[in-house]
Amino acid sequence: MTLSDAHRAIDAVWRIESPRLIAGLTRIVRDVGVAEELAQDALVVALEKWPESGVPENPGAWLMATAKHRAIDAVRRNVMLERKHADLVREMETQKEMGIEAEMDDHIGDDLLRLVFIACHPVLATESRVALTLRLLGGLTTDEIARAFLAPEATVAQRIVRAKRTLSEANVPFEVPRGADFEGRLSSVLEVIYLIFNEGYSATAGDDLLRPALCEEALRLGRILGELVPSEAEVHGLIALMEIQASRFKARVGPSGEAVPLFDQDRAQWDRVLVRRGLVALERAEKLGSALGPYGLQAAIAACHARAHAANETDWQQIAALYDALAQLTPSPVIELNRAVAVAMAFGPAAGLEIVDALRSEPSLQNYHLLPAVRGDFLMKLGRIDEARAEFERAASLTRNSRERNLLLERARSASEGGKNAGR
Amino acid sequence: MRFMVLVKASEALPDMRAYNEQLARAGVLLDHGTIAGYWLIQARSQEEAMEWAKRVPFHGGEIEIHRLLEVSHDVV
Known about the structure:
Distance between the termini of chain B: 6 Å
Radius of gyration of chain A: 26 Å
Largest sheet of chain B: 4 strands, antiparallel
Largest sheet of chain A: none
Strand order of the largest sheet of chain B: 2-3-1-4
Structural class of chain A: mainly alpha
Number of helices of chain A: 19
Number of helices of chain B: 2
Order of helices and strands of chain A: HHHHHHHHHHHHHHHHHHH
Distance between the termini of chain A: 56 Å
Largest interface: A-B, 33 and 26 residues
Oligomer: heterodimer
Shape of chain A: elongated
Strand content of chain A: under 5%
Shape of chain B: globular
Strand content of chain B: 25-35%
Helix content of chain B: 10-25%
Number of strands of chain B: 4
Number of strands of chain A: 0
Radius of gyration of chain B: 12 Å
Order of helices and strands of chain B: EHEEHE
């Protein structure tokens, strides 16, 4: 094995072990910044020793032991921080006696969960939570995070440094939130994970490959969370939503890089492994008893599409009912618009038009091209051709996407030619 | 990236539940077979897949790792 082969192998071990390592160290030193430094120190030693000695049998335990030795040394040399040094040294030496491995098994899951909550702490700005999560829990380098988010590396580096300092100064406790706090804090974690996913999902061909890889990262983090808090339905709901959306990753882009709407996607390209995983995760959410939350409902809608082998097999009544429930939980004009589409598919265009007409005065949708596009579609189906044409033209004027504009203008044209094809 | 980790053994496989749990808790397990001894995992590199394969608690046979190639937009 060449030195660079060895380094790549060690890097792989690092990616696997570092979150738990940092989590365990954070419990000891009570500071994520210091914990990460200690973990990185241990990595440096590993890079020196393992190419010769080989990767140890239990690399996680080796790294933890090494990091702790460095911590004890640093504390003794008074290099580290203004904590109670004597207490710290005593605690670490006791743990050393107890046996590293036994102790790791006891605490690791809990520590990892604590680390997740700290990285997503509400005292941090959202982009800081994202960066810190990818760094501490994803093991991504600053450069990788910067490239994934199309940000300058210096900005991301500063963001991470400031985030650690903020957590330190705020004396954020290393604990899993309790009681009333828990749901809100968990929401924050789910939001970060889904943000990472969406950043990845929006990546287009030609983007740095680190961008679509964010979907993988988000899925991995979501699945880890699903094992750490298995009794939380919204966690499984989010996992289900991401698995099913990710299943369409290939189908959502056409041959010339254009976005392909769901109805037109080649379902043979939907990844069955991910669809299956998504449906299993959704079932887990449903079996937990209480009503689905927003992620669960979105997942259930996605599942309806996933279960239909062809677009015309879609259970639109079910989707309409789910959008109804979602609109009650998290009302928004866009959700209402989607509900209108589902209602029209299930109960006819007149029913959909009723919903859309109520949205015409909605300020946030004034420049949203899909509103007139959808309204035009309903009007076409109701035979109100002139009105439909006007709506398609309006929609075309609102979109900045030239392909989209051409499609809408084409629909307007065929409407004025007494168009028969109301199509999609 | 996706990898298939296969165990080729002439003897029965030991209880793999602990290993399966390890993979699940790391968020990397996509699918697995209990009789046939295979794991479909999601890893960020070939080296990571190899590290996971090294952790299969079985030494009485061969372990193969296959990278599953995607045509384009190699995401999951």
